[in-house]
Amino acid sequence: MKEKPTLLRKKLFALILLAGLAGTSFAQGVRLNAYSSYVFDDKVDSYYDPYNYYNGTIKGGYSWGVGAEFLAAPTKGIELKYLHRSTTAPMEYYKNTLQTATFDVGLNYILIGGNNYFKTGGKVEPYAGADIGMAIIYISNPKNNNEDNATKFAWDIKLGTNIWFNEKIGLKLQADLLSAVQSAGGGLYFGTGGAGAGVSTYSTMYQWGLGGGLTFKIK
User: Fold this and answer.
1) Please, are residues 69 and 77 in contact by the beta-carbon 8 Å criterion?
2) Are 82 and 67 in contact (CB under 8 A)?
3) Which of 95, 125, 175, 194 is surrounded by the fewest CB atoms within 10 Å?
4) How many other CB atoms sit within 10 Å of the CB of residue 75?
5) Pick the CATH number of 5-217 from 3.40.50.300, 2.30.110.10, 1.10.760.10, 2.40.160.20
6) What are the phi and psi torsion angles at 128 (to 5°)?
């Protein structure tokens, strides 16, 4: 049975909060991070033969998320985070004849990884990091009401800086590249919505994001 995206987001948000509370007992420092960014368009395509293909764009838009970060050392952080995007994907595909549709897409990422901080001795705290995890992707076709979902391997890399207003609250500025590997294709059935009728090759999503958010020291 497919779990509704809203219920999934509530569970993942609760997981992040529980991880943050549990981590306070052993980490040298604990931070809660709130993410907000703009993600740019990404073109995807998959071609098997002249009668099995699609091409189109995963549209850009707003992304939000939350993370719990545990500092194992003054310059080393381990973070568990959840990111969400709701967007659309205009596609051209072949199913008996050439067709077009704009799909509704929900992207949910669960990632864990590390951040390396570069101490400056002031309020500015640059960092770089990388994460791995999974992307849970929902797709629906408004033309025929078909729906599908898939879970794929995902990763991201990031560069940013925290600018601390005081000892507890800081502004986060960040640029990142987020990828869901082999995320679009036969497993999601763009244009077809049924097993055995989809394109049998895959396309990986690469999404650049610019934004940031807020960071809170709770320990």
Assistant:
1) yes
2) yes
3) 194
4) 13
5) 2.40.160.20
6) -140, 150
pLDDT range class, residue 187, cuts 50, 70, 90: very low
Tell me how long the chain is.
219
At 158, the amino acid letter reads K
Helix (H/G/I), strand (E/B), else coil: 65: strand
Exposure of 111 by Cβ count < 10 A (0-12 exposed, 13-18 middle, 19+ buried)?
buried
Listed by start position, the domains of the chain span: 5-217
Q: Which amino acid is at 42?
A: D
Q: What is the pTM of this model?
A: 0.81
Residue type, 162: N
How confident is the model over 41-92, as pLDDT tens digits?
998 877 767 777 778 889 999 999 999 999 888 899 999 999 999 999 888 8
